[in-house]
Design brief:
By secondary structure, the protein is mainly alpha-helical. The protein has one domain. Helix content is about 80%, strand content about 0%. The chain contains 5 helices and no strands. Helix 1 packs antiparallel against helix 2, helix 1 packs antiparallel against helix 3 and helix 2 runs antiparallel to helix 4. The protein starts with a helix and ends with a helix.
């Protein structure tokens, strides 16, 4: 399964900048929004890395694709729930946040495994 990871990373990068600009221009500094934005933007770069890993073959590509999927899911669940919390000021979204955090961690683990397999093959 090859997904357009650069396009997905570009989308998440664009939405992170838009979110930051929106928050800045509204003049409402919100702690939840700041955390959501940081995690949102920090996870764009690893998604770009998955574009290169996904072009490989076998387990490297599988773990690379899985890393991208999990990081994308993390942005949607973790950052999305905190964005919702900051704008709607309802705690309903807050219960989804830990699932997004776990998705980020699993994504980093898959990225690490994929990178290790690529390094091992080159050695």
């Amino acid at each position: 399964m090859k997904l357009p990871w650069m396009m997905i990373a570009g989308f998440f990068g664009l939405t992170a900048v838009m979110s930051g600009a929106l928050n800045s221009h509204l003049g409402e500094q919100n702690r939840f929004h700041e955390i959501a934005l940081q995690f949102h933007m920090f996870h764009v770069a690893p998604i770009m890395v998955t574009a290169f890993l996904a072009n490989d073959s076998g387990a490297i590509a599988r773990f690379g694709n899985l890393a991208g999927l999990l990081m994308s899911l993390g942005i949607l669940l973790f950052s999305g729930s905190l964005y919702y919390l900051s704008f709607a000021e309802e705690m309903v979204g807050f219960y989804i946040t830990p699932a997004g955090g776990l998705s980020f961690m699993a994504g980093w683990l898959c990225l690490m495994i994929s990178g290790f397999l690529a390094w091992k093959r080159v050695r």
